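Supplementary Note 3. Input sequence used for the single-chain structure prediction.
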Amino acid sequence: MQQILQFDADDPDGLANGMQALDMHSSLIIEGYRYWESRRQGRPMPARTDLDPLVDVPRLVANLMLFDVQCAPLDFRWRLVGSRVRQYLWKDYTGDWFSKDPKYNNPESAIWQSLALVEKNHQPVLLRPAYIGPNEDFTHVENVLMPLSVDRDGWGMQMIFIDFIAKKRR
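The predicted structure, written as discrete structure tokens, is reproduced below.
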């Protein structure tokens, strides 16, 4: 099954069709996307300054990540990592660059490819990779990655909502 899917934010069925294609079911992903969409106001993407997730969607902040995007050479920096996300990663990556970490400095990896695709086309991406981390209760994660504009030449930003999907209990 394909695990990365980019969709047109202007297609009203884009998110639903993409989630169906990837067998994604997270209501958190839907809520996160709707928040981003509500801030777009007809533009290709909202500006970072249009968002205040702590006030607007406090329930989702624990599952939120923000990445700085350096355009040339392409690189990504963990800007903000929500508390639930940090809890299920190997370490707190806040402030780290992908290029400095062998786990993430790999243009063949799904996360690098997804971030690069969002940056290239300025369209949201759904990502459903296997979970790799310290918690053995999860099988995979469901993500929606969305572009944000910033007022700085050669830079961008992305907002990601991530949900950790537990193994089915017998």
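The mean pLDDT is 92. The two ends are 25 Å apart (CA to CA).
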